């Protein structure tokens, strides 16, 4: 399916082990760190609670709480790894691995609903972040995704990879498979091979990994929905609750 980065219309998108946070966004108070990590560690079958009030150093009596994640959204107008308007009220950061089966479940079941209900209406922007942690095929697929993005077809690549479940490091995303996917979505294969091998591509993937691990995120899928961490392939309702609260507060 063709995807556009400008709504309407637009088109997008494990329960991770979590480490102690290593590098929050500037001088966030200790109570904020404790509250956020408690939310991130919530089991995948339970919706995350919003980060509000004292947890972020804000007021619980009607004042709008500071968003400790605000500096993470890039909002670059020409970002091929993003869906939605740069000035959308809510930005969803999605940290994902192309081999992760729970990422695939989100991409097939929840992502399309979020696009239809929020991205296409200009309320939400989705920004992809690479977090390849499941092995060599994850690393290779992340680089291939960046190479597809260089030709304006990241989301076509995303949908093709996640169209079905794949066994981890089984060869389903090996060299031949990645080139087959690239061919199926109409990429220039010579450019695809050059771009995925480039130092710039691997630097961009490492930047995303470092951003995730600086917050203690070491697995996928993990999302920052505006001011709310959501971990795992949570149901649509968990995202809807977080988005509606933030859009309604504006």
From TrEMBL:
Keywords: Disulfide bond, Isomerase, Membrane, Oxidoreductase, Redox-active center, Signal, Transmembrane, Transmembrane helix. Residues 48-78 are annotated as: Disordered. Residues 42-248 form the Thioredoxin domain. The chain crosses the membrane at residues 21-41. Pfam families: Thioredoxin_4 (PF13462). InterPro entries: Thioredoxin-like_fold, Thioredoxin-like_sf, Thioredoxin_domain. GO terms for molecular function: isomerase activity; oxidoreductase activity. It comes from the Bacteria. Residues 55-64 have a biased composition (Gly residues). PANTHER family: DISULFIDE BOND FORMATION PROTEIN D, GLUTATHIONE S-TRANSFERASE KAPPA. Belongs to the thioredoxin family. DsbA subfamily. This is Protein-disulfide isomerase.
């Amino acid at each position: 399916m063709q995807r556009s980065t400008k709504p309407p219309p637009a088109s997008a998108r494990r329960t991770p082990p979590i480490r102690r946070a290593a590098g929050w966004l500037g001088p966030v108070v200790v109570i904020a760190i404790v509250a956020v990590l408690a939310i991130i560690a919530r089991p995948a079958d339970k919706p995350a609670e919003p980060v509000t009030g004292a947890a972020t150093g804000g007021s619980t009596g009607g004042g709008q709480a500071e968003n400790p994640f605000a500096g993470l959204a890039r909002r670059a107008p020409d970002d091929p790894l993003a869906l939605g308007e740069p000035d959308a009220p809510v930005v969803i950061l999605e940290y994902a691995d192309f081999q992760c089966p729970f990422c695939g479940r989100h991409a097939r079941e929840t992502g399309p609903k979020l696009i239809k209900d929020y991205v296409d209406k200009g309320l939400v922007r989705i920004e992809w972040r690479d977090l390849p942690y499941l092995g060599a095929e994850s690393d290779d697929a992340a680089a291939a995704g960046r190479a597809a993005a260089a030709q304006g077809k990241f989301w076509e690549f995303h949908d093709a990879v996640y169209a079905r479940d794949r066994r981890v490091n089984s060869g389903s995303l090996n060299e031949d498979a990645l080139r087959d996917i690239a061919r199926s979505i109409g990429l220039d294969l010579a450019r695809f091979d050059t771009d995925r091998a480039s130092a710039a591509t691997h630097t961009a993937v490492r930047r995303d990994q470092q951003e995730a691990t600086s917050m203690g995120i070491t697995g996928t899928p993990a999302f920052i929905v505006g001011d709310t961490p959501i971990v795992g392939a949570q149901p649509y309702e968990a995202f809807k609750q977080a988005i509606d609260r933030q859009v309604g507060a504006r």
